[in-house]
Fold this protein.
Amino acid sequence: MTKLNSMQTDNKKRANDYVHEVYELVKKRNPDEKEFLQATREIFDSLRPVFAKHPEYIANGILERITEPERIITFRVAWEDDQGKVHVNRGFRVQFNSDLGPYKGGIRFHPSVNSSIMKFLAFEQIFKNALTGQPIGAGKGGSDFDPKGKSDREIMRFTQSFITELSKYIGPDRDVPAGDIGVGKREIGYMFGQYNRLKGGYEAGVFTGKDPNHGGSLGRKEATGYGTVYFVEEMLKEKNLSFDGQTVVVSGSGNVSTYAMEKAIQLGAKVVACSDSGGYIYDKNGIDLDTVKRLKEVENKRISDYTKDHADAEYHEDCSGIWSIPCDIALPCATQNEIDEIAASMLVTNSVKAIGEGANMPCTLEAMALFHENGILFGPAKAANAGGVAVSAMEMSQNSMRLSWTTEEVDEKLHLVMKNIYVSCMDAAERFGHPGNLVMGANIAGFLKVADAMVAHGLS
Ligand code: NDP
Ligand code: 2IT
């Protein structure tokens, strides 16, 4: 063995030992947090080649530091329903990392919200936000409040109570929340109103995802879904493919799903299925997006109601069945771990060509491994769904400058950000010995940006 080879072997061993040791520490410190451990596991597996090349990150304890949130705020949210009954929910804000800018990330209202889900989402946000190239740190918040079936007044009272406590910890240069599952422009509007009332002023940049008529950015609503499709478009180009003529399945029928479907259709694809947590619809003629938008954005109905207007379409209970539908491109845009090994093997058997993660961590580690083994193009969430937060950062810029960009200007900038993210991921994957592997590429490129800032900013 030459001297160089033996040094490389030593560095590899040191990197593997370091990753193993820190992962054991993370497991010990967060024993019951399965989603958080899943998200850290994926990152750790990608970073071995980085530590082998850059021992300075080991010396600076970057992995120990990057996996411990700077701060977690947990609080009581008491509110009264329309019958005068008092309810109590739990509120969270995980302020994970501020080395690149103010904490930035969405707020989720869903009964499943707990510390593990909040931490995995905030952790993923570190790398995603770094990939956008914009000056934003990472956070996530939410509550186990279930907005389903609540009146508009109940939503307002809950949201005002939630933000009354959280207002102590956020601000345009400190922490800037946005929407996520169960939180759209209506909820952001109530939070913004209550925050300003408490502060006695108008701090435009404290939230993003605001209504474009009241301080929001044009194009933010569409940004995550459109961005996911722009990213997948870049992936497809590697194989001389495009969306044109492809059959697409998109899970969910919320914000991300709706605009992923819209862009895919605009690019010539036929979207044949979408879903909600109750079940999925299959329309062999191609989903009529106007019906979906009316049902979901205007009438607050279930996706099952689609069949009332489209007699040819089928509705099936059990949303996970959507992955049994043959398609060329699958865009999981609903929630975490919605594609497990069984769903992934159905997609592979049906010759899927590409997967683009619009949701956060929608594929389990086993599903991802299966796609990788079968050479399926795979766009990981941190990269593929970064368009939402990227346009949020543009909303912050517009708010600071007190001006508004046009829809076309925002869309052009979004398209460029997604192309740049694709190039950075491909480049990092190549440089660290895993050409074409966008999971490794996204994790490494995002990590390097934050790790360098953490070294530069000293121990904290
Ligand atoms: P929405 O609340 O607008 O829509 C969520 C959709 O997913 C709904 O159709 C919902 O169905 C379905 N869904 C939610 N939970 C489950 C579940 N446990 N099982 C099956 N289906 C479920 O949320 P978004 O579109 O904003 O978010 C979707 C995903 O995209 C999330 O993973 C989010 O973190 C991620 N994301 C969102 C961004 C954004 O800008 N909004 C940015 C980047 C990522 P139902 O109505 O029945 O609950
Ligand atoms: O997961 C995400 O990136 C979001 N929910 C959007 C965050 C944001 O601040 O726009």
Q: What stands out?
A: The longest helix spans residues 3-29. The two ends are 40 Å apart (CA to CA).
